[in-house]
Amino acid sequence: MTIALACSATAAPARAADAPTLLDQPYPGTLTLAVDLTEAPKRVFRMHETIPVTPGPMTLYYPKWIPGEHAPSGPIQNVAGVVIKANGKQLPWRRDLREMYALHVDVPQGTSRLDLSFEFLSPGGGGEFGASASSTPNLVDVEFNQTAFYPAGYYSRQITIQPSVTLPAGWKFATAMQVASQSGDTTQFKQLTFNNFVDSPMIAGKHFDRVDLDPGAKVPVHLNVVGDGAKDVKLTDQQLAAPRAVVRQTLKLFGAHHYDHYDFLLTLSDHTGHFGLEHHQSSDDRLPADFFTDKNMHTAAASLMPHEYVHSWNGKFRRPADLWTANFEQPMRDDLLWVYEGLTDYWCGVLTARSGLWTPAQYRDSMASIAAAMSARTGRSWRSLQDTADAAPLTYYGGYDWANWRRGTDFYPEGQLLWLDVDTRIRQLSGNKRSLDDFARAFYGIDNGSYVTKTYTFDDVVNTLNQVQKYDWASFLRKRLDATGNSLPEHGIENGGWKLVYTDKPNELDKAAEGLRHSLNLAYSIGLTASLKGEIFDVQWGGPAFNAGLVPGFEIVAVDGKDFSPERLEDAITAAKDSKSPITLLVKNVDVYSTVNIDYHDGLKYPHLVRAGGKDLLDDIAAARK
Ligand SMILES: [Zn+2]
Fold this sequence. Notes:
It is globular, with a radius of gyration of 26 Å. The protein is built from 20 helices and 33 strands. It binds zinc ion (ZN). Zinc ion binds at residues 278, 307, 311, 341, 344.
């Protein structure tokens, strides 16, 4: 079949991607899609789709710009076995030469629907977000953008689809989609728009549990869990106390909700990718198996679920106009991600503390670590915070090497500092009568119950800030967004009555994270980060290690003439404080060894916040709301 397809494909004419005016009117007819996941444990998803058509040239798109990923990241490289038939006869198709996500096909006369079948070869490892490992022998996570093509020419919200999913025998599932009927292991879902289909992922597995996070509420919120073992999905009331508090505190913050029901779709596995992806009425949350049982893991990853939940308000219900697109083919523009992601990260830190997942001290540790990391962004001398958002499809995939110099997705962490600056400024200007909580209610707490996306612009953000507290917010924000230079332009920590200092001991939160990632963070002392085996991840541009000749990718083999160990390097940094001799490292670059001398004598440095006088606004921000 593959050979026949390849031959017939050459007969189809090559065409440039059409750029038709998109119709914002119903696409005639309803697509059907049968997703066969019975081979999900082998990482093969099989699809059979029907698409109502009229004769003539037609273009089918595979979703390219993935909401929440903010990038043209649809994993089309994993699509194989594409066969398009009309009335049982295989049709030739040709990929567009400029747009790899578009397939052109000529629909013959007498054809009212196309039958399209293909496989999605779900990755076993690597990849990012939805395109990372998504199935194990016991479970599967499905982002449905991977499972369907859609016709060009229409707003995708005007295309309807009737999906069904067949699971391995006995597996249970959760999704925000509504069940129409069930027969054996096949579930038919109610017809929905293509947008809502893509926005409604599924988790399924042999081991599954579902718990109510807001008992008695009119609008239910559930935590659905799949894992590789039965014990992984059984959560105790004690373990559920914090997620329940997250729901309560988030609803108190926004004062409205934008879903009919909300479902956390939590995967606890060591064999899938680990990330969260937001959706309007659900979130795809993937964490390691020991998230609830390992204290370090729980502390370090505590903010993931609050982050994705906040996105139901910030990102899904309210979305930057530039990020709203008529279909999954039109490019998204990421310039307001410092609101979409930055403010979400700010609220998620705050809610992680307000719900008791972090203590107030751990919340302050998180701000200390972020402020230190952003202060050490040497690349701020050439790249503004705004550019890290504008270039998000690049910054998401930049990697760790030279991250300080190239900068990364800094609109998340520096976005937090920016919004802390806004929050503390509102509190100062209003005599502590108002805060960013008022902005949350004014901007997101509207249209209670509606999940029709309401877009916004920079000016809308500024206008609502002005309703909360009169100030020149446009200049305030632009000054911080557009700044280049060596120092951090945000001052929320100082406004909040605290200051960033460095001591020779890591803070509690960093210690938890360091243990998990098996990394050594010496960015603020000799200027490098490395694995516990000595492989260098990043080197501070212009820092002591850089000046000694180290670059990312080198391996530290020995410290002052002895085998490398993390403790030995830390001890050497401490010992050098009282010495004029440099720290001598034997390093390996591929297969070449050399000796470098780091002339550094200031000791180990790790970030903390200490009180600096004035009112303590940070503790107020982190305090649970009654
Ligand atoms: Zn996010």
